[in-house]
């Protein structure tokens, strides 16, 4: 089926949301928990599958749901439909952590895109969501995202989110080496492989990880400045311990904080 032609607006800076405007009887699909607000007459329903194939049948839906479960995504997807007979209505969707939202039209991109797990936010009804297994062992074991990537197919709008700032690069036959956690998405015409990060000394003491993702060929690549795993590691490293103490307990600020708490 052809994807619904939804209009949209991305608002905000570092904590963005996308406002999707639906014509009467238009539908947008989204990950569970991504919705921010809905205008009147938009109704939502959790369904097994993306709704891209009306003749998929129960077994097809179960297989699709099982593949999403393997990739760590929710088995169900939420379908938001404008049930108004004459007026446009808006639905808003937001990412679960600070970053940017990327709006892409698959109809102008050969109809397919590969992205990291968890990057998908929402899309026009008719977009097919599946998973793609990496065939190379090196990519599977050291690629940061394992063997599994998300594959999106269709001819409509899709919206992804990533942490930090986003940069778009277009490869024209050259090779780009990237931190494995910074890769967000790439076109299927781009070759994806893993290389070790220099010699043994650089690998263990360079601070850039043991392996780098190698992207080559022709096509567009999207990168994020701050992988969410890196952000989470920093937060955990600076979080107070279970005993209530923190790393600044010996500092002036730490002592002042304890004095104020005692009062």
Notes on the protein architecture:
- With 263 residues, the chain is of the alpha+beta class.
- The protein has a single domain (7-237), classed as Mitochondrial biogenesis AIM24 (Double-stranded beta-helix, 4-Layer Sandwich), CATH 3.60.160.
- 18% of the residues lie in helices and 43% in strands.
- The chain has five helices and 17 strands.
- It has helices spanning 57-70, 137-142, 200-205, 228-238, 252-262, and strands at residues 7-11, 17-22, 27-31, 35-38, 42-48, 76-82, 89-94, 99-105, 112-115, 120-124, 128-133, 148-153, 157-163, 166-179, 183-186, 190-196, 211-224.
- 31% of the residues are buried.
CATH superfamily: Mitochondrial biogenesis AIM24
Q: Which architecture name does CATH use?
A: 4-Layer Sandwich
According to CATH, what is the class?
Alpha Beta
The CA-CA distance between the termini, in Å, is 66 Å
Order of helices and strands: EEEEEHEEEEEEHEEEEEHEHH
Low-pLDDT parts are 137-147, 246-253
Query: Which sheet architecture does the biggest sheet show?
Result: 7 strands, antiparallel
Radius of gyration: 21 Å
Name the structural class.
alpha+beta
Number of alpha- plus pi-helical segments:
5
Global mean pLDDT: 79
Q: Level of helix content?
A: 10-25%
Compile the SSE list and pairings:
Elements: E1 7-11, E2 17-22, E3 27-31, E4 35-38, E5 42-48, H1 57-70, E6 76-82, E7 89-94, E8 99-105, E9 112-115, E10 120-124, E11 128-133, H2 137-142, E12 148-153, E13 157-163, E14 166-179, E15 183-186, E16 190-196, H3 200-205, E17 211-224, H4 228-238, H5 252-262
Antiparallel strand pairs: 1-2, 2-7, 3-6, 3-10, 4-7, 5-6, 8-13, 9-12, 9-15, 10-13, 11-12, 14-17, 15-17, 16-17
